[in-house]
């Protein structure tokens, strides 16, 4: 698939062929959904907890005697039917970890990138470079590259130039920077456009090839 290469001003400067095995793979919606559910589940802490009748304070003796009061018998104010008593069948601490083979996770990413490419939501730029880390400069560049759209900016590696890009995009509510090694299904599906520097294509090929 041949796409245009743009500069920071949104002008065409070249063309490039996207790797067929990554950007023209079969689109498996079920696999993408499975990967998305796994990622969201693994992000859960699972620290929710309520107290059972053995953990709440109070009790220790009957609130009143068994017979003779005309009221229903009770053995403890910690019973679940009492206000302030213990809870029954409520959430307890647990792990939500959902495992998925690495090859399936990679196939889901290829499927998501192929879907983005098919919808013309992949934007290739010759380079991402700013004079200084400044939000205003990044906002101006994104206005030229992905006007009125949210954007996921994928960077190939950590360096000073990419660090300036990260700092500049940090305060933009509809933009996010992400290294190739941290590419994930949720971010790919959450943003309208995916902005890739030409250098990132080799890194993606190595990561997902």
Structure, briefly:
Helices cover 35% and strands 14% of the residues.
Tell me about this structure.
The protein has two domains: 2-28 and 100-208, 3-Layer(aba) Sandwich (Ribosomal Protein L4, Chain: A), CATH 3.40.1370; 50-90, no CATH class. It is built from seven helices and six strands; from the N terminus they run ββαααβαβαβαβα. It has helices at residues 20-23, 29-42, 102-118, 135-145, 160-169, 185-190, 198-208, and strands at 2-6, 12-17, 122-125, 151-155, 175-179, 193-197. α2 crosses α3 and α4 (135-145) crosses α5 (160-169). The radius of gyration is 27 Å and the shape is elongated. The two termini are 16 Å apart.
Report Rg.
Answer: 27 Å
Number of strands: 6
The appropriate CATH architecture of the largest domain is 3-Layer(aba) Sandwich
Structural class: alpha/beta
Distance linking N and C termini: 16 Å
Classified in CATH, the superfamily of the largest domain is Ribosomal protein L4/L1
CATH topology of the largest domain: Ribosomal Protein L4, Chain: A
Count of individual helical segments: 7
Task: Give the SSE layout.
Blueprint: E1 2-6, E2 12-17, H1 20-23, H2 29-42, H3 102-118, E3 122-125, H4 135-145, E4 151-155, H5 160-169, E5 175-179, H6 185-190, E6 193-197, H7 198-208
Name some characteristics of this structure:
single chain; 209 residues; alpha/beta; Ribosomal Protein L4, Chain: A; six-stranded mixed β-sheet; 14% strand
